[in-house]
Each structure stands twice: as structure tokens, then as C-alpha cells.
Amino acid sequence: MELLFVILIGILYSAGIYLMLRRSMVKLLVGLLLLGNGANLLIFLLGDLIKGNPPVIPPDSSVFTAVYADPIPQSLILTAIVISFGLQSFAIILLKKVHLATGSDNLDDLNTHDLDI
């Protein structure tokens, strides 16, 4: 199972970097999304894939007695998802404004236009 995740992370990273190197701003945003999803899967994989109980101590004991799932990687991934959603929404609005000002989504056209955003 881990090998499948490693291959998927490699594909997401390579596709994300490839799209970020293109001239289109939309492809840049999609590449950023793929890179973020690859990073989330990497955090998930490094947090160990363990089937276990939630980390709740029973009232009659003071320590964990069974195998439990680590909540830290899950909370890091949820935080990263929220931050990436905010970044995506800001980038989409910014790309819309730039497209309205230049009439193109090509990054080379930004040098030739006077932008009044």
C-alpha cells in the first residue's frame, strides 16, 4: 500500500512541477493544486498507516493500552487543506482580474501590458 502512495506522490509532484513551468496562469494554478495534494499525501504517508482506535483514554485508566491512530498528521493535513483552499480562491480571483486586464492568460503578456487592476 505504501508503494502505491509513493508512486502517486511522485506522479503528483512531477505533474505539478511540469504544469507550473508552463506559460499559462491556469496551468500554474492547477500545478500548484497538484503539488499541494502531493504534499498532503506525503504527510499522510509519513504519519504511518496504522489501523487503530481513536486516541481517547478510557475513564478507568491513565495510559493508552491499545494501538491508537496518531492524530497529528491528520490535523496537519486538515490545516493544509484549509490553507490551500484559501490560496486557491485568492488565486482564482487574481487570475480573473489579470485576464480581464490583459485579455490573455499567458504569463509573457504581463510584460507587454500596462495593468490597471
Describe this structure in words.
With 117 residues, this protein is mainly α. The protein has helices spanning 2-20, 25-46, 71-102. The longest helix has 32 residues, at 71-102.
Chain-wise SSE layout:
Blueprint: H1 2-20, H2 25-46, H3 71-102
Helix pairs in contact: 1-2, 2-3
C-alpha geometry: elongated
How many E strands? 0
Please give the count of helices. 3
Catalogue the unreliable spans: none
Distance between the termini: 48 Å
Mean pLDDT: 85
| Rg value | 21 Å
**Main structural class:** mainly alpha
What portion of residues belong to β-strands? under 5%
Roughly how much helix do the residues carry, as a percent range? Answer: 55-70%
User: Main β-sheet, in a few words?
Assistant: none
Order of SSEs? HHH
Please provide a brief summary of the model.
This protein has 3 helices and no strands. The protein is an all-alpha fold and 117 residues long.
